[in-house]
Amino acid sequence: MFQNRYKSILCQEDVYLKELVRYIHLNPLRAGLVDALKDLDKYPFCGHSAIMGRKSRKWQNIAGVLDLFSDTVFLARKYYRSFVKKGVDQGHREDLIGGGLRRSSGGWSNVKAMRKAKIYEKSDERILGDGEFVENVLSTCQEQLQRKYTLINLGVTTDEIAVIAAKLLNTEPELIFKPGKERDRVRARSLFCYWSAKELGVPMTDLSRLLKISFSAISLSVKRGEKICLSNDYSITDLLKL
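The chain above was modelled as a monomer; its predicted structure follows.
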């Protein structure tokens, strides 16, 4: 926590997530805060204890990790702990703590070998994954950024987004901003949250104040709105032309 400034890293799940989870959860053991893995199992200041079922944290995504190991909780915990145990003697991992290309390639020696062989991969400090994964992520981000500035240049506001969302779901724009759990109103609010946050770049904290609902509720609405868009092929830029 205190070694460097906080940073989040986008991870190529199927290749790196398990390794990252193990490495992060072994931090207290490497730092000497606990003496053995059995002590780490119940250590309260680490996510490992919640995954092992020793501590309860409703906000921690335990299932997301356990699902990587088995469909049943008992077996998942067994295989997960075995996987963590195998990492105890690995110590510091440069391939997991260095820059984007260094992490993704397994350390500087591998990077140098790749360059000597004239193999070049796209890299980014914020992304952990192979070159193709990094390139796809950056390309997607660039597209999102372009859409955002297109909307801003067109003078699109949250009020206009509310009108479009309400029209699609046969409800009134003002109802989006009022409490209510009617199906169409919830779906319209979800579209509003998704387009406002992801397309227009409105911070979810601002949406929370605007709609007078919690940040977690906004986050769920954004996810729900994304699913609605994908299943119905809705595009805010296309709808603005109608």
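The chain has two domains: 10-92, 154-240.
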